[in-house]
Design a protein that fits this description.
This protein is α+β, with helices and mostly antiparallel strands. About 55% of the residues lie in helices and about 20% in strands. The protein has two domains: about 5-170, no CATH class; about 175-355, Nucleotide cyclase, GGDEF domain (Alpha-Beta Plaits).
Length: about 350
Amino acid sequence: MLSGKNAGFQVASAIGLLLASPLAAWSALEVEGPAPSLLGRRGVLYGALGTLMALWAAVSLATLPPLDQPIEDPGSLLLGIFAVGVVLYALAAAGYIRLYRRRRRPLLIAAVGAFALLAEAMLAIGLGRNWHATWWEWHLLMLVAFGLVARSAWKEWQAEGSTAEIFSDVYEDRTRGRREEVSVFFADLLGVAAFTERTPEDEVRAMLDTYFSSATPILERYGGVRPQTIGDALMVLFREDGHDLRAAQFGLQFQATMSKIAEQHPGWPRFRVGINSGEALVGLVDAPGARSFTATGDTVNLASRLEGQARAGEVVIGAATYETLAEKALVEELEPLDVKGKAEPVQAYVLRSLDV
């Protein structure tokens, strides 16, 4: 394609490895603040990288300055690039070793090995001679590096399943799980067992699809996150400011919408709803064969118990939720409830309406 050497092709691989090294090092740091914004703009970063690669190729092929002339002594330049890159890859490896000490998972140690191999590849580029045996060394090193990570990821994918968080081992602890104030919504169909016994399976599925699809726009309106369905049950998490009010609004609107659907289909079971607010551990939960992102803890358990105390069409809320809504909520106070897992009876309320 070219009549002779030029700088673009001489240093392209080394520059690519150099560009990757600070990102590798940054991925191993426990940073505050910018990570979510960076992930939100990853499309821009991918686009910028693709544009840079395309420009580098175009300038190299067109033999345009400053990449038109060959570098007389590329070894010294490439070794200089290696010196910078090896420090950054060493920082990346050190960070992943720290993670490996916390969570001894194959993917983490594979990443450490990959960073070491990529640093060695930069050295091989500086010392190798084109089209000699040493020139192929850095190709092999890079291939082995990517192969290590790919094999570990594939093993986790096979063990966890296609929907699992297979790279969760590299997440920061606060991403994997942290305590925060939330409101938890639970709903299930009262009398669904009897309904399924006398109803064909395809009709049961149609009923559930109708109910749950109708809940989606309401969920989006009130900012519920991580909805999970198990059979006829629905769990929704409400986070951040105003989570208790939004959960209560969602509960009332959910029941109003589901009641209208039930009126159009006589014989369909009705939902009962429980809502509770408080501190929960929000993050990844490891389970045999799968990982899931959910909320756990006493707040979640009590929300489930309150749902079991509700009658068809009702929304039962816990005392913590009621305290934040007291001036806005019209409720019916229930007798203290004996619920599983609680030594003392708990106070609960049937939520009738909200004045907001």
